[in-house]
Records
---
Amino acid sequence: MSERVFVKVVGFTDVERHALNTMFRLSDERATSYALWTPDMQAAPQMSLVDGQSAEARLALESPNAEPDVKLIWVGAIAPAHADRTFVRPIAWPDVVRAMDELFSAPVTVDFGLDFEPGVPSTQLPPDLIKRTLIAGPDAMERFYLRAKLASLELVQADEAATIAELDAALAAGHYQVILVDLDFPDVNGWDLLRRLTSLKPAVPVIALTATPTIGARLRAWLLGARGCLGKPPHPGKLQELLLRI
């Protein structure tokens, strides 16, 4: 059963709140998700995310209605002693999300089978949606798994790249509509690789694959231009949903 953690947000700029709203939206795919708490809710918040530089911060701490059991993440130079995590600006949102995951962690269930999840039909893609795909990753078995899933959708126009050199050569030689890239290539920073791919091929949707599909990783992938970030091996239903959407 999924758990939703309500977060009381105090302060922050409009741009920062936009990043928070994006983070909350991305968390809906997780066993533990985060949502904005509002005063009209009957339930109390389980976490407070406080901008220590805001005028509301001191009022929130001194409020007689403050909940002592609420987890506190503080952004600012001078944090109260009971803060569970502290950060300073500029805010690294993936690190903030990682801290939230640590405070409200939940096991991630990964489907290693080849069947689609119940409720998501194992159907073929319409002919006009079939896309030539590049599968880039160092693990042969993981590439085989992805090719099997694409074949089950009759998305058979797939090439593979086992090294960065093969990836570069494939991109130079062919035109792809989708790129599936493993962020765990050896001897290369996965985030730098993702940034390079989305910059080099801005019109081509890139789906990132990682062994640690935390909310922070998904948010960071989104900020770097990826159209999706899935765990390894990717859940068949979520992979199909992404392919149908992009």
---
Amino acid sequence: MPRVLVARPLAQSAELLRLLAAAGFDAGHLPLMEIAPQPDALAALPQQAAAADCLVFVSPSAIDQAWPALQALDLAAKRLLCVGRASAAKLAALSSRPVLHPAEGSDSEALLALPELADMRGQRVLIVRGVGGRPLLAQSLAARGAAVEFAEIYRRLDGAPDWAAFDRAPPDAVIVTSGEIVEQLFRLAGPSRIRTLQCLLYCVPHPRVADRLAAQGATRIMTTRAEDSALVAGLKKWFCRHP
């Protein structure tokens, strides 16, 4: 039974861990990153959202942190957008509203390619995200005429993996879903584990994540769609071919 570790925040890992276990994997969580809410930003969020025409949620963590502060707000006149399909499905279920998202791809470039965002003149856009992040989305929307604000409602903190357990039973594969988590993995593991990490199989949802792994020296990288089911299906297919 292949051992697969999921290296993303625990709040977004439960369903993926369940699917992996159901598919016959020995699934575990590798806590490389924790999500810490930003109380002041969350307190200001309802007022910011009320003033916006469009709300863009850039990650599952943005939805998890924001929704308790937004659920009492009337969003009927707002346009809701997400970068990824899975995030859009989650937000649609919570809000009972349609959510605009790319049919293909799960990044800012794919979102910006939507024809609905070609002309943003006069639109007030609130980007809900963690502290920091890529500037592309905000810069591009502003260039198209939007007035852009940020609600940076959470901060990413270092997790505390059990590296002794990792050393005793190294995984056969690791699922890594963002470039930030790649950096966390290689930094927190320390120099003594670099060679082990470089030899592992990685399953990732985006070429940009694969590029970050390759830059760290990893060579066994498979890219799938971003949905949890696609990640699991990709690993099943790989291990069937490489028993």
